[in-house]
From TrEMBL, chain A:
Major localization class: membrane
Lineage: Eukaryota, Viridiplantae, Streptophyta, Embryophyta, Tracheophyta
One Gene Ontology cellular component: membrane
Assigned keywords, A-Z: Acyltransferase, Lipid biosynthesis, Lipid metabolism, Membrane, Phospholipid biosynthesis, Phospholipid metabolism, Transferase, Transmembrane, Transmembrane helix
Disordered: annotated segments: 350-375
GO terms classed as biological process: phospholipid biosynthetic process; triglyceride biosynthetic process
Sequence ranges assigned to domain Phospholipid/glycerol acyltransferase in this UniProt record: 164-275
Transmembrane segments: 76-94, 100-121, 133-153
InterPro entries, per database record: LPCAT1-like, Plipid/glycerol_acylTrfase
CDD domains given in the database record: LPLAT_LPCAT1-like
Protein name: Phospholipid/glycerol acyltransferase domain-containing protein
Keyword check for Zinc-finger: no
GO molecular function terms noted in the UniProt entry: glycerol-3-phosphate O-acyltransferase activity
From TrEMBL, chain B:
GO function terms (MF aspect): calcium ion binding
Residues in the signal sequence: none
Keywords, alphabetical: Calcium
All copies of domain EF-hand, residue ranges: 27-62, 91-126
Gene3D superfamilies the UniProt entry points to: EF-hand (1.10.238.10)
Keyword Ribosomal protein: no
Domain of life (superkingdom): Eukaryota
Protein name as it appears in the record: EF-hand domain-containing protein
InterPro entries linked to this entry: EF-hand-dom_pair (IPR011992), EF_Hand_1_Ca_BS (IPR018247), EF_hand_dom (IPR002048)
Keyword Acetylation: no
SUPFAM superfamilies listed in its UniProt record: EF-hand
Amino acid sequence: MDTPGNLKTSSSEFDLDRPNIEDYLPSGSSIQEPHGKLRLRDLLDISPTLTEAAGAIVDDSFTRCFKSNPPEPWNWNVYLFPLWCCGVVIRYGILFPVRVLVLAIGWIIFLASYIPVHILLKGQDKLRKKIERCLVELICMFFVASWTGVVKYHGPRPSMRPKQVFVANHTSMIDFIILEQMTPFAVIMQKHPGWVGLLQSTILESVGCIWFNRSEAKDREIVAKKLRDHVRGADNNPVLIFPEGTCVNNHYTVMFKKGAFELDSTVCPIAIKYNKIFVDAFWNSRKQSFTMHLLQLMTSWAVVCDVWYLEPQNLRPGETPIEFAERVRDIISVRAGLKKVPWDGYLKYSRPSPKHRERKQQSFAESVLRSLEEK
Amino acid sequence: MGNASSMLTQYDIEEVKQHCDNLFSQQEIVSLYQRFCQLDRNAKGFISADEFLSVPEFAMNPLSQRLLKMVDGLNFKDFVAFLSAFSAKASVEHKIGLIFRVYDSDGNGKISFNDILEVLRDLSGAFMSDEEREKVLSKVLKEAGYTRESYLTLDDFIKVFGNSGLKMEVEIPID
């Protein structure tokens, strides 16, 4: 039995950071051979494996996590239709231009103060940082206003102190804006192209945000190091991490990356739940650009959401980072009413590692060999 | 934001229903159509191998590569016809027929020793050696009254599976 052992180590080496799906999936494969004597029929019977495959083709929990669920149309009704039409006229004809104006004013105020502060206060880092923080909060407020964000914050506001990390579930980039308008978080985020990327590398850099590229393995190490340094610094903004690593549709939570839970710091969970009464806040980055997503939000009546700042958690003695991450995911899922699924969100961008298939093959091979020995 | 089900007319549904021998109800077909459109991300009218593999639960299946050869590039009608073997209403012969087609990769209507060996290889991977697989297979074939050289036909398959309950059902989620 040399080969299986070798295979296992080689496959686990190249994805050290990956959460291990097996740790989450219920143990025991569905490919089960009946005990006792092995007959031709048993060997030929591949129906359990086929059933699993067909089941996955018909429906699977992974794709469900990233499916936009538009609210049921309620307006197709003779009585409500004229009203709905009025709504469309108001939303697109009045609300939208007003919101664009609000956002434009916001940007003018922001840039008019940010640029001078950034250039003139080069010497006084502390003061400059403080003003820049306030300005970033301000522009976020303008953003929230531009979709008439009705946000209810529950629980105590986050404090600024070293050795704490905030983690939240992720639905859209607007999560960040909503949280940022209350507290200047430093966020860890995927590097985006276009105007969002420009904002990231210029303005948000000043609040200490860290950018990375999901597909670059090297970036991961650099981020981990930057993150550790940032968390230790006393005067730095608190770090905010979306450990799912990708946007999920606010009905499910995918597995948390363990990076945020290995920093030897207190983890403060934040749960965000959007009310889909007016608009679905899930940003399906495959289907629409962030600009289109913002336009969609700006032409809706309002974005309604609840934010809960939950009780800080610490690593318990004897607990592994993965177990810790799962515990925090539990807390967030319960509060926001989300279902947990045992998937790694990065599977959106890559294929599952061969490890998972090998596990099934192993259990099949073992059961065949066992029944062969029994005779 | 278009509603996928609105694109299927009653004629379409009837056509698909006939194509799969009425094994799925209208609601199930509408559901399957929504799923089909969801998987067919680029709206080409068929689901490519890459799109099938984007479902991790499918990509992890030991037989996924073999099944891909059967389902790659199917249009909606054939997609439903493929899945109809998993309907609770499908006959045992129909289900065995699908299993037979999985084994019969060259489609010549008979299955050789090597055909079975290849499926076993997919199922057990590196956890069984070629000798072990051959040994197991020769042994059970002999016990069932066949030899290494014999070819199995669909009728042989139906005989081997007999009436022992073959559980191969997938429920179509209807929301």
